[in-house]
Amino acid sequence: MQQTDIDQRIYDLYDEYCHGFMERREFLRQASAITVAGVSGLAMAQALLPRYAEAQEVLFTDDRIKAQYVDYDSPDGTSGSMRGYLAHPKQESAGVFPAVIVIHENRGLNPYIEDVARRFAVEGFIALAPDGLSPVGGYPGNDDDGRTLQRSMDQAKLKQDMLNSAEFVKSHELSAGKLGSVGFCWGGGITNFLAVKMGSDLSAGVPFYGASPASDDVPGIEAPLMIQAAEDDPRINAMWPEFEAALKANQKTYEHHVYPGTRHGFHNYSTPRYNEAAAKLAWQRTVAFFRENLA
Fold first, then answer.
1. Average per-residue pLDDT in the chain?
2. What angle do CA 201, 205, 211 make, to 5 degrees?
3. By C-alpha distance, which of 148, 88, 77 is closest to 121?
4. N or C, where is the chain less crowded by C-beta within 10 Å?
5. Gyration radius (Cα) of the chain, Å
6. DSSP 153
7. Is 264 a residue whose pLDDT tops 90?
């Protein structure tokens, strides 16, 4: 089913569901009440659910990279330790690479985010995708349980786990010492959080449709930002005018890209919200931005 086959009302319900404001059962119940040109809303709703196995762009067996799970300390976090998915180019001679932290959505480290980390490794980066759920058992294998589990956690400690993860990959023996952060949805908001907390220790940030920081926190940002936004994303876009005003008032370096015809989550290629042209352009811009600022 293509994007144009899905009624806007279903997208609106899905937005409530994927951000944790509605349970799966209620999402499907309300969608079932909608029928358009003989197509049931239930079928449209089910088409929006992720299909990760069909969406991988770089397989974990790709011989250009090395990818593995790693454990590391996380002081003052949820449990004191963390696990993440680390990917980097495979090469025989010793070398170092620009570092990137890849931050998941509001449901833990799912296969889509692992694939993004592998894509960065193919591009010549060392990338860490932390699993914020690892201190409480890890990503449970499906987004519904992952979303519920992440929502139940102490959010301040979860943010500390992300900060510790950023510092871990930045100081990794294969890191060249400069760090970029990219995040999606919840992870986009965490990228903005890292920009505030890390100051000059973060060299570049690319939040994809993430929540903006408080205006009073913007002075702490030192890293240049590339803000990636969907055209149809009312909740996130409503935050932008105030965020932009604060960035300008504090003379921060930033770019803001809005992709026409896109919805929240347009980079996630496991659902019909994916917009291929916009996602590819956003990816090219992200990689170029990191290469420029992490060199």
1. 90
2. 120
3. 88
4. C
5. 19
6. S
7. yes
Q: Whole-angstrom Cα distance, residue 267 to residue 279? A: 5
Query: Which two three-digit tokens encode residue 215?
Result: 């205006």
Helix boundaries (H) for the chain: 8-18, 24-32, 41-48, 111-122, 143-151, 155-170, 186-198, 234-237, 240-249, 276-294
The residue ranges of every structural domain in the chain are 3-48, 54-294
For 176, residues 6+ apart whose C-beta sits below 8 A from its C-beta are: 96, 97, 98, 99, 294
pLDDT at res. 167: 98
- What residue type is 85 in one-letter code? Y
Token reading at 199: 């100051």
Measure the CA–CA gap between 89 and 212, rounded to whole angstroms.
32
Cβ(98)–Cβ(295) below 8 Å: yes
Gap between the Cα atoms of 159 and 75, Å rounded: 12
DSSP-based three-state secondary structure for 16: helix
Distance CA 174, CA 106 (A): 29
Q: Taking residues 231-238, report their average pLDDT.
A: 95
Of residues 59 and 105, which shows the higher confidence score? 105
Q: Is residue 19 within 8 Å of 106, Cβ to Cβ?
A: yes
**Residue 120 one-letter amino acid:** F
Residue bearing the bigger pLDDT, 100 or 17 = 100
CA angle 67, 184, 238 (to 5 degrees): 175
C-alpha dihedral over 17, 23, 28, 31, to 10 degrees? Answer: -50
Output the pTM of the full model: 0.87
What is the spatial distance between Cα 48 and Cα 44, in angstroms, rounded to a whole number?
Answer: 7
- Name the nearest CA neighbour of 128 among 145, 104, 160, 155: 104
What CATH code would you report for 54-294? 3.40.50.1820
Alpha-carbon span 242 to 214, nearest angstrom? 9
Please say if the pLDDT value at position 263 is more than 80. yes
